[in-house]
Each structure stands twice: as structure tokens, then as C-alpha cells.
Amino acid sequence: MSSLSFLVKKEFIQFRRNKFISRLVFAFPVLVMLIVPLVTNMEVRGVSVALIDHDQSSLSRRMLSHLEASKSLRVRMQSSDYQQAYRQLEDGKVDIIVSIPERCEQTLLLGQLPCISVDANAVNSTKSGMGSQYAIAALGKALSEVAAESGVSLSSGDISVRHFYNEALDYRFYMIPAFIIILVLLICCFIPALNLVVEKERGTIEQINVTPVSRFEFTLSKLIPYWLVGIVVLTEAILTAGLVYGLWPAGNAGTIYLAALLFALTMSGFAIAVANISDTMQQCIFVLFFFVMIFMLMSGMLTPLESMPQWAQWITVAFPPRWFVGIMRAVYLKGTTLAELAPNFLALLLLAIAFCSIAMLTYRKQR
């Protein structure tokens, strides 16, 4: 432990001496959280629907047919139990609930528009808004067709829409947790890896190679400082998002910090493993950039996982950001508890063990 403490102290001294990196770590998160949420606007596709049919009529079957025919909608479940559908919505398995009331067809035949409701999960505000409009369009088409076939002229009425977890449908609220993840990912991935490669290029790592420092101590000394840096970055991002945009975590902030610790450990271990097998800074940057881009595009940060092919969704199981994204959005917008997110934490823990083990095994003591 004495050797480890000296190695960690060395890492902090190196970090402090690099004025550019030390300033970047503190300024970069604030600038990103101030600017990027204001200019980011991305469209998402793929909406899962739960249909609650209390009418069981030819009209409700026509509505189901139109919902299934839509290219943007996927009917995941049909039931008469709203609570069951709501649990699916709460778990993120469906995005909107379409509720058809009793005597819906009779109301239509009397010339009135039935009170059909659409409840949406607005954690992803864009997907919620688009999904609601797609569903309303499909339902409206079915109502118009049946009314025309029955010779009925519709009077006033409305389809009510409720948005859970993000009532204002503010797209920034959906993306801010993703931006926080990207910040932690970049800081905890690139800085420790580049720090190690610089030591290789300068030859100073040879001094460590001739000491009795073990693989475990060496790897841990490279990880510990950037766990702390990752926590500082996370804190800056949360404070900026709260003070500037008014978005504070709906759940326990301790859950976020615990997940961030596991995520920082995982990504730092991955970065050290890449640095161990890289001989130059250019090589290390190229490999890290490739994987970071894949992680960002395929982890659900920017686009929903449901929009990907099934084979791609299975691949993302091995991507640490996928599990951290689920934790951040669930805690930030829904107030989900640690117990409910246990599968995500378990996945992060297993990936942290795997990547840190790889980092230790790839450290070559003698060159």
C-alpha cells in the first residue's frame, strides 16, 4: 500500500503540472453543459404502444389495425387492464398507452367523437410527442372511416394526451443526462490512457518497470485519480444543469454517484487496457476514438435502442454506457430507486471487473 500511495501521488503531481489538461477538466464540463443543450435537436423513431380496449367492438379492432399498420408504431401488448399497461410504461417497455373506453362505437354512431386517451412516457420527450401524434393520426383515420361508412357526421370531441415524467416535452431534459455521461466517458477514457502513453514515449515508465511494483498496484494507481476526476466532472455537470436549466435529479443523487463510480472504473480500465497495447499516442487516440464513437452511437445516448436491429441490441450488452444511460435517465427523470436498477448496476459491476482485469493482464512489466 505504501508503493500504491506514492504512485497515486505521482499521478496527481503529473496531472497538476499539465496546466492545459487540469484546466480543461474543470472548464470543459461547464462549457458543454451551457452550450450543447441549447443547440442539440435530434429526431428519434420507434414507438411501442399498449392498447387498452374496453369496448371490444369493430371500431376498436379497426383502430388496432391502423395502429399496427403504422410504420412508426409497434403494438407491444393488448389488454383491458390499465394498471398492467402502466407498469409496462413505468418499466420503459412501452412508450404510449392508448385507452379505448366502453361504448366507444355507440358514441361514434351518435355523432360524437369518443373520449379516447393517449398516455405517453415523456422521459424521451421527442419520442413521446411524435408517438402521440402518430397514434392520434392512426386513431383519427379509423374513426373517420367508420363514421363515413355509417353515414355519421362527427361533432366536437377530443383525444386527451398526458405526458409522464417530462410534462413540458423539453428535449433538453432528455438529452442532459446523456451529455453528462459523455463528459464522464471522455474524461475517464482519454486522459488516463494518454497519460500512460506519454510515459511510454518519454521512457519514464521504464523506471517503474524495474521496480517491484505489481500489476495490481500499477493499474490501480492509474485508475484512482481519474475516479476522483470523474466525480468532480459529474458534480460540475449536475450543478450546471440544475442552476442553468432547472433540471435536478428526481431520485436519489447517491444512486447517480454510485453508478458514476462504477462507470468511471469501467471506462478507465478499458482506456488503460488500450494504452497498454499502444506504442504511440496516435495509435492510442485512434483506437479510443473508434470505440468511443461506437459507444456513443449504440448505447442509447442519442437514439433509442429499440430503433436498432435485434442483433445490434445484443451487441450493446457489452457496452458500459448502455447501462449507465438507463440509470441516469431513470433516476434523473423518473426518480427510480437503486433496487429497481439492480440489473444495470450488476452489469456495470461485471464490466468493471472484466475491463480492469484486462488492464492488469495487458500491463507488460518487462519490455
* Largest sheet data: 5 strands, mixed
| Number of helices, counting only DSSP H or I runs of 4 residues or more | 14
> Which ranges are low-confidence, i.e. pLDDT below 50, for 5 or more consecutive residues?
none
In whole angstroms, the N-to-C terminal distance is: 25 Å
Order of helices and strands: HHEHEHEHEHEHHHHHHHH
Q: Say how many strands there are.
A: 5
- What is Rg? 26 Å
**How would you state the average pLDDT, rounded?**
81
Lateral arrangement of strands in the main beta sheet: 2-1-3-4-5
Overall helicity: 55-70%
Give the structural class: alpha/beta
Morphology call: elongated
Report strand %.
5-15%
What is the number of domains? Answer: 2
Features:
alpha/beta, 2 domains, five-stranded mixed beta sheet, abc type-2 transporter like fold, 367 residues
Task: Describe the structure concisely.
This protein has helices at 2-17, 19-39, 58-69, 82-90, 104-109, 125-150, 171-202, 205-209, 215-245, 253-276, 281-298, 310-315, 320-334, 342-362; strands at residues 47-53, 73-79, 96-100, 117-121, 160-164.
Can you give a write-up of this model?
This protein is α/β, with parallel strands linked by helices and 367 residues long. It has a 5-stranded mixed sheet with strand order 2-1-3-4-5, sandwiched between helices. Helix 9 crosses helix 14. The protein has 2 domains: 230 residues, no CATH class; 118 residues, abc type-2 transporter like fold, CATH 3.40.1710.10. Strand 1, helix 3 and strand 2 form a beta-alpha-beta unit. It is built from 14 helices and 5 strands. The chain starts with a helix and ends in a 5-residue tail after the last helix. It is elongated and about 90 Å long.
